């Protein structure tokens, strides 16, 4: 540790699925570990899992915490551990989890303000956690990182802080998301999930703000030969809507999609649709683009910034517009790989995790000096 820049990172949320904040945290640690002048102290709950996930990485040590991620107990344990490094390390919370009792210099990544924008979907615990833990912790931070200009604007408004306190570091797209021409692999995934030759794809959760019901309603207006593939399992309200619209044969839920199958799924899809009402960043549309899959997204929140002019942006609740845009790809027999595909692949490739790491380290080095 002597002579090195010491960074404490809370990685208790990282698991084998590596989705969302877990992916963000993992990629930061992986890329930071390549820097010879950095020593990373990683906070975990499971040492066996941590050694498995971060196997082969250098400049890392683990500290096991007893308290679980997002718990009241962590408000005692987290400061006890981190404060031992006061003056010798910077604490980075890659999520909104922190403590106002931490005395080290710290930065925090706030990906979005979803819990505040849609309080009806969360417990009272989340409300009080944001008010009494996240907000005072964020105000104590030297800098706050976020993943889009949209989120930056929201955070500044929420905290009433100066603009330069919040720094945008875009998420990256993993290198495994690319055009795949291996026919054997393509056929394997098609058979595994029982996929049709052409289909609309949605990847994401089914929380109300994801607006999947609008997509299902749009499907009810399209040609009866068009099918929609959704990861996971349907919830009760979505199931009832599908039955009401008599779409049982056209909307297919394929359960959990293994991480290595996801890029192939994007490659097989005719078009990817992401109708979400609110995203701090919105990674699935970029992953789809990297695989050469055309994207239709809602013109909301950060999606207009991230999808930009490289996808079709539809009015979020306009069922007829989603129907028209989806139908275009099927009725006009659009060629999958063309000039447009080349453009979206090139655009999505500019979002690299190394860039995210470099920008984060730039902020940390400024604070550390």
Automatic annotation (TrEMBL):
Domain Glycosyltransferase subfamily 4-like N-terminal, first and last residues per copy: 20-175
Lineage: Bacteria, Bacillati, Bacillota, Clostridia, Eubacteriales
Keywords, alphabetical: Transferase
Cross-referenced PANTHER family: GLYCOSYLTRANSFERASE WBBK-RELATED (PTHR46401)
Record InterPro entries: Glyco_trans_1, Glyco_trans_4-like_N
Keyword Transmembrane (UniProt): no
Source organism, top-level taxon: Bacteria
Protein name (database record): Glycosyltransferase family 1 protein
Domain called Glycosyl transferase family: residue spans: 190-336
Keyword flag Hydrolase: no
């Amino acid at each position: 540790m002597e002579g090195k820049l010491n960074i404490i990172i809370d990685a208790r949320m990282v698991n084998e699925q590596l989705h969302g904040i877990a992916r963000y945290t993992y990629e930061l640690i992986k890329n930071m570990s390549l820097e010879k002048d950095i020593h990373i102290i990683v906070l975990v709950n499971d040492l066996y899992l941590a050694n498995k996930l971060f196997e082969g990485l250098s400049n890392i040590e683990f500290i096991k915490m007893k308290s679980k991620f997002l718990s009241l107990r962590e408000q005692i344990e987290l400061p006890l551990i981190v404060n031992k490094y006061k003056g010798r390390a910077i604490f980075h919370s890659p999520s909104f989890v922190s403590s106002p009792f931490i005395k080290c210099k710290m930065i925090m990544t706030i990906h979005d303000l979803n819990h505040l924008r849609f309080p009806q979907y969360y417990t009272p615990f989340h409300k009080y956690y944001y008010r009494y833990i996240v907000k005072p912790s964020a105000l104590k931070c030297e800098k706050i990182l976020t993943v889009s200009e949209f989120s930056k604007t929201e955070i500044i408004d929420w905290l009433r802080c100066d603009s330069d306190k919040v720094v945008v570091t875009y998420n990256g797209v993993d290198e495994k998301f690319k055009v795949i021409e291996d026919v054997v692999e393509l056929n394997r995934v098609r058979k595994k999930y029982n996929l049709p030759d052409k289909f609309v794809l949605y990847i994401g959760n089914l929380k109300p703000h994801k607006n999947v019901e609008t997509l299902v309603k749009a499907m009810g207006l399209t040609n009866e030969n068009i099918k929609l593939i959704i990861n996971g399992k349907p919830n009760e309200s979505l199931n009832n809507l599908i039955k009401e619209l008599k779409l049982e044969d056209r909307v297919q839920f394929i359960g959990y999609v293994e991480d290595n199958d996801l890029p192939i799924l994007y490659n097989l899809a005719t078009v990817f649709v992401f109708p979400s009402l609110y995203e701090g960043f919105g990674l699935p549309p970029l992953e789809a683009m990297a695989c050469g899959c055309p994207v239709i997204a809602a013109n909301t929140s950060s999606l207009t910034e991230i999808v930009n002019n490289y996808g079709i942006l539809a009015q979020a609740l306009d069922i007829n517009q989603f129907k028209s845009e989806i139908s275009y790809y099927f009725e006009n027999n659009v060629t999958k790989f063309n000039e447009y595909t080349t453009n979206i692949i090139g655009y999505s490739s500019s979002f690299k995790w190394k860039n995210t790491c470099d920008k984060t380290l730039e902020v940390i080095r400024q604070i550390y000096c």
